[in-house]
Description:
By secondary structure, the chain is an alpha+beta fold. It is 29% helix and 23% strand. It is built from 15 helices and 20 strands. Strands 7, 8, 9, 10, 11, 12, 13, 14, 15, 16, 17 and 18 form a twelve-stranded antiparallel sheet that branches. Helix 7 (144-156) runs antiparallel to helix 8 and helix 9 runs parallel beside helix 11 (257-264). It is globular, with a radius of gyration of 24 Å. It starts with a helix and ends in a 10-residue tail after the last strand.
Amino acid sequence: MTKDDLQKILLQMVEPLKKHYSQGKAELNLGAQAAGYGIKVANMEGFSRVLWGMSPFWAGGGTEDELLEIYRIGLANGTNPMHPEYWGDLGNKDQRMVEMAAISFNILLDKEQLWNTLSEQEKSNLASWLNQINHYSTADNNWHFFTTLTNLALKSVGMPYSKEKIQYSIDKYESFYLGNGWYSDGNRPQKDYYISFAIHYYCLLYAKFMENEDPARARLYKERAAKFAKTFIYWFDDEGKALPFGRSLTYRFAQAAFWSAFVFAEVDSSYLGVIKGIISRHMHYWMSQPIFDNGGVMSIGYCYPNLHMAEGYNSPGSPYWSFKVFAILALPDNHPFWEVKEEPLPQLDSVFTIKECDMVMQHRKGEVVALTAGQYPTIYQTHAAEKYAKFAYSSRFGFSVPRSTQTLEECAPDSMLAFYVHGNIYVRKQCLEYTIKDNQIYAKWSPVEGIEVETTLIPTDKGHIRKHKITSTLECLAYDCGFSYPRTSAMQSEVSEGYGKVFDDNGYSMISSKSGVGKILNSAPNTNLIYPLSVIPFIEYNIGVGTQSIESEIQTAFKEGIIVTGKGECYELQDNTGTESLHR
């Protein structure tokens, strides 16, 4: 991966956007889907998020004059209260606070390209619009550094700013710190990609821009990032795929944004080859997936367009948060990063516990799996149980989200123990208690009133073992489900007492038990995040009143190579050394 390669990928992605800017250039309208904050704010979001990529592109010497002019006009009109495309006044916990960060990043990074081309009145308008963030409350999570970055930008151009708000936000981030480089995203149990592509990302921007003025804190943020890197690296497999886990997965290759910020902030040059390898493989993986519509616009979804898995705050422009990965384009052409040889992942433990995020990680060639507990969020998120509370998450097999809880097919509860009670499917949501010891996870949980389960997860070479102790006051059915597998005409299945397996020439997914009946589930279309069509092997148990114990073993196997969805019937394997730069 050369700098030119990465610049070309970015330019290929922004070219189709040009025809979607509004007449006044302050809005980017990419579709009709709704987000909770309305279409006008969504259009402003689309406009702003492109700057996460274009700002470092311009700062690093890249040339794209047409977009530069679009953004000069758009910034002027969007912050002019007298213009029809004025972005409007803020309120508390306003989505526009989020989007201020990309604009502030642009100002901090390179004032020549945009800021200095504005008239004095336009500069005043932009500064006044940004300063609104100091007069309203933000969400009590990673949002706090939107205030910090915005005030640093205002300060850098001699405009009124709030030193107190900067310190307040810094103090809030300190209250989220857990140790060993890990934060929580506010005072919540979940630890997901917001720790990497939000909290650490913004702290590293602070470290870069404030290294002379606040060297002690800049050094602290770099030290924490270095600690975090040693465990976060377990979220990536050797083929460049990252762990599908948690919310906001439509941001796709923002999964690797932390590594770009790590290099941009010059945390530790000894990691450059490893990080270059991670980013290069990661981008190759994503550019091999059908994540763009037939007009070249990035879709909402994961490995294919899929509104079903999206959050209520995902607008048509939201996926361009992924442009955070392009921070490294700000590096000069002669930076060692562009010269260093790409390296594979270092030798990682095959089983490794990250206690700060309540995960036991399993690493093998072509896959990373996380066994989890205790992650269910304390505030509502779309499909929260599926995104946080499954037993296992795989970079190769993904996970599924339900279309409904009425039928097993629509629930698609892969990597879960599901109960059919009162005409509905119930799964694990919040753990009542849990412990992680000796790379094993114990959790007590209740899917529905009248049923309590104690589950122990034990990693094995080819998968994991689940031991469930079920205490029930109800008679019901339970389904212990393995990993999803792509459904094609070449796929075959085997079922028997206590055994279910789906397989083809590329591998298999299997579950076995000493009791119960093995079955195969054809999941509803578009439930799995990686495979548009999928099947799930599972064991069906009859649960009686009282206490009983069941045990299942889950195994998978696969050929190495990148899974490319949306080709052929469902998928094909692509060698990692392929040269395709962008799949549309």
